[in-house]
Structure to design on (203 residues):
C-alpha cells in the first residue's frame, strides 16, 4: 500500500481494524508498505493509516476489493431480424445477446467470421449486432465472444455457443427451378382442345 504525509511522522497501518504495521517512520513524502500476509479471501476490505508527529495526528481510510473469480458468459442467444428469426438473408441483422456474471469490459464479438458492427455492455444483457453481407459463409451463423475481463482484470473464457439452443441459418442463394414442363390430357397433349386439362409440372 502507498500513501503520503506532509510531515515527519510515526504511522500505523491497520486492515479492517487489525494493526498489521506499527511505528512506520519516515520523512515527509511518500510511504509504501507490504502486508505480512498478502493472501486475502475475496471480499471488500478497509485499510487505515494513522500518523502522528508530536501533537499532530491524522487518519486516512481506503476501501479495496479482492476479486479472483473469473467472469462467465451465460444466457447466450442468437436471432435475426428476418421475419423468420431462425433464418437470415443478405442485409439482415444478426443479434447476439448474453449475460455476464459481473460487469465486464466490452468483449470482442465475431459473427459470421467478421467483427460485430456494435457491442454494448452498458446494461444487461449485452447486445452485439452484425449486418450480413454478400460473401459471408452460408449455413449456421457462427459466433464467438472473447477477450473480456472483469473490473479486477480476471479474464473470462471464450464462448461460441448458445445456452438456449437458438440458431440462425444464413441463406443467400436465390431459389430456382431445375425442371418446368407443360402438357395436356387431350388426345394430342401438345394441342389441347376445349375442356382439356393443362398440366404444369416443376421442381
Amino acid at each position: 500500500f502507498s500513501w503520503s504525509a506532509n510531515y515527519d511522522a510515526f504511522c500505523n497501518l491497520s486492515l479492517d481494524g487489525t494493526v498489521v504495521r506499527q511505528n512506520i517512520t519516515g520523512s515527509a513524502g511518500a510511504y509504501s508498505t507490504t502486508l505480512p500476509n498478502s493472501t486475502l479471501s475475496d471480499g471488500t476490505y478497509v485499510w487505515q493509516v494513522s500518523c502522528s508527529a508530536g501533537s499532530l495526528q491524522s487518519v486516512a481510510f481506503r476501501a479495496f476489493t479482492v476479486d479472483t473469480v473469473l467472469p462467465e458468459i451465460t444466457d447466450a442467444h442468437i436471432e435475426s431480424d428476418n421475419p423468420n428469426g431462425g433464418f437470415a438473408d443478405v442485409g439482415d441483422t444478426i443479434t447476439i445477446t448474453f449475460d455476464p456474471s459481473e460487469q465486464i469490459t466490452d468483449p470482442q464479438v465475431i459473427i459470421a467470421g467478421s467483427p460485430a458492427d456494435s457491442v454494448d455492455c452498458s446494461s444487461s444483457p449485452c447486445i452485439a449486432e452484425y449486418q450480413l453481407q454478400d460473401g459471408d459463409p452460408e449455413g449456421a451463423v457462427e459466433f464467438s465472444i472473447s477477450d473480456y475481463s472483469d473490473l479486477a482484470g480476471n479474464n473470462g473464457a471464450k464462448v461460441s455457443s448458445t445456452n438456449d439452443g437458438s440458431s440462425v441459418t444464413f441463406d443467400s442463394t436465390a431459389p430456382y427451378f431445375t425442371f418446368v414442363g407443360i402438357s395436356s390430357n387431350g388426345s394430342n397433349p401438345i394441342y389441347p382442345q376445349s375442356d382439356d386439362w393443362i398440366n404444369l409440372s416443376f421442381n
Remarks:
- The CA atoms of residues 84 and 168 lie 9 Å apart.
- The chain has a mean pLDDT of 86.
- The chain has no helices and 18 strands.
